[in-house]
Amino acid sequence: MASNSSYCEIKTEVPTIPAASPRNRLLKVLIAVAGLVAWWVLYRHLERFANWATFSLLHLSPTSHLGSAVQFLIFEVPKVLMLLVLVVFGVGIVRSFFTPQRTRTILAGKRESVGNVLASLLGVVTPFCSCSAVPLFIGFVTTGVPLGVTFSFLIAAPMINEVALVLLFGLFGWRIAAIYAGTGLLIAMIAGWTMGRLKMERYVESWVYETQLGDGSEEEPKLSCFERVHLGNQAVRDIVGKVWPYVIAGIAVGAGIHGYVPQNFMAHIMGKGAWWSVPLAVLIGVPMYSNAAGIVPIVQALLGKGAALGTVLAFMMSVIGLSFPETIILRKVLRPQLIAAFVGVVTVGILIVGYIFNFIM
Q: 111 burial class (0-12, 13-18, 19+ CB within 10 angstroms)?
């Protein structure tokens, strides 16, 4: 627990970009173009390769449980990892336009209703995760951003994960991806607005308001297109290098469900007919510590076995949006009453989303 003398200074991190001659830049551009072409060719033939490797090379039967599970694993691992590399590269470039200082500047001084919308949208594209929750919370609150607006950002940032969004698009199409993004934004906006109405500023630890921050006069780096591409490459090395074990673990679980769980079995547990399926999915999802890249393949397998969309959506959002590690980190700046209200409001929002989509889909 931090004391009243706690100090936190948020600064813009200036990336270190290696110098490159025009010739080297041109070479890297050509390599990038060739890499994109190779990516597309390989991606188009993944299913054919998975079928050949499973049924011709390994001589597994297409109708066997093991054959079905292995084919799913061989097909989905490279597919998801290839999508992940492409997505993270693009997001790394987008994120180079946002810094904590710039985000604070955008949100500071806005009316609360407008601020909730902007904060939710910024949460999708800014490079912040649960480990950044405390310094961001301090930075927002001490620069005049309303508490409800701050919570809209903190909810949207992990819940509407850009990796999950594009993986859902690649695996299920734009309709499911749009449902995920739209409902996540709605939860972040309404939950933040609700938190603002509860007037719970007194449950923020007192030392937060005494924290000193930079005066905002630091000059932000001006990056060239080449430098932003370099940051995209850096994001691929950093993020994909960390999450690939979770991706493979999630796909392995999905392969087991795909191959061994009887068709429509999940409909009895996570189907529309079971009223308790949505709260059960949330209860199961909250204590799980996984990231979006690891949970999406499990979502795919659950839907394929008859689970209802609303129930699976509630499960996914509870895993990503109600991260247990994040609530522990936020305890440094929030008192238990405010943490309980935050978790409760988001949980209610997720439950409502789950029931609505089970009813209309």
A: exposed
